[in-house]
Amino acid sequence: QVQLVESGGGLVQAGGSLSVSCVASGSIYSINAMGWYRQAPGKQRELVAQITSVGSTNYADSVKGRFTVSRDNAKNLVNLQMNSLKPEDTAVYYCNAQGVRTVTNWYPVVWGQGTLVTVSS
Description:
Elements: E1 3-8, E2 10-13, E3 18-25, E4 28-39, E5 46-52, E6 57-59, E7 67-72, E8 77-82, E9 91-102, E10 106-111, E11 115-120
Parallel strand pairs: 2-11
Antiparallel strand pairs: 1-3, 3-8, 4-5, 4-9, 5-6, 7-8, 9-10, 9-11
């Protein structure tokens, strides 16, 4: 069984910075892509940032230049550094792993439980 455990998040004032991290566990051999999605109240879940195993990144237009996603393949860890935060960044942030291969199984998608980020104006 693969699990994604998130940490970080919380409350920050507009213009501030925050980071969220996620570690994948469960006899993992490889993970194709890791990243973050978010879901604000009343809105659909959307991609924030993603990074592949070779370091290619993809960002939502709304966070380009403000957010940075990074990854430690050896630790199965992905981090999202969020700078210049805006009230509209307020959402539950979900860790996402795609193409997870373990010793015995392959999982196309795994989700974390979510962590709340609140940006006050």
